[in-house]
Design brief:
The structure is a single chain. It is built from 11 helices and no strands. It is 72% helix and 0% strand. The protein is mainly α.
């Protein structure tokens, strides 16, 4: 007997989970919360993922697998490699638009750091993101936008500044997260630019 086709794809469930994590955080949310968001029953989620932990792990794995997918789209949308870099490094601000959403995202990061099963996916995601940043920096050097530099180290700095700036914005809560992160990235990149950016 053929299996019944799934009416809701995993990607839709992960989008719903992302929204619920933003509202409640990974520890407070329940399968019922996610099920209500996506229009399924909690039992259906248990059947597919086994448990809340199984769902969160599948979400982390999917995130790691797609961590570098944004770079092609961002690059295609910008003539300048450096503009594409800044756009890629500020993407986090779109999914964490409020301090509360950021706090709940950091709660997931705590799980990533402390649980080996989650950490392997976080590491994969970080590696792919670093590689994406470095590729754009290498392209910026070749295009004459940046001075010759150690792009591997600078890519690490871009990742550190974008994440750290987002946390600082959540504390100060002045302006938008995107503008805050972009300003700090421009400060980081300014000494490496061959030409000053227009005010």
């Amino acid at each position: 007997m053929a299996a019944r086709p799934r009416t809701v794809e995993d990607a839709d469930i992960f989008m719903a989970l992302h929204a619920v994590v933003g509202r409640l955080g990974p520890t407070r949310l329940t399968l019922a919360d996610v099920a209500a968001e996506v229009g399924l029953s909690a039992a259906a989620l248990v059947q597919r993922f086994g448990s809340k932990r199984g769902l969160l792990l599948a979400f982390a794995r999917a995130g790691a697998e797609s961590a570098d997918m944004c770079f092609a789209g961002v690059r295609a949308a910008h003539r300048s490699p450096l503009d594409a870099l800044v756009a890629a490094a500020t993407l986090m601000t779109q999914s964490m638009g409020t301090p509360e959403e950021l706090a709940n995202g950091l709660a997931f990061l705590q799980i990533d750091i402390s649980d080996p099963d989650f950490r392997k996916y976080a590491l994969e995601s970080f590696d792919k993101t670093h590689a994406g940043y470095r590729a754009l920096l290498d392209e910026a050097v070749k295009a004459g936008e940046l001075k010759r530099c150690d792009t591997a180290k600078l890519a690490h700095a871009v990742a550190a500044v974008s994440g750290g700036s987002l946390i600082a914005w959540a504390v100060w809560q002045k302006g938008t997260a995107a503008r805050w992160v972009k300003r700090d990235l421009e400060t980081l990149l300014a000494p490496y630019r061959k030409h000053r950016i227009r005010p």
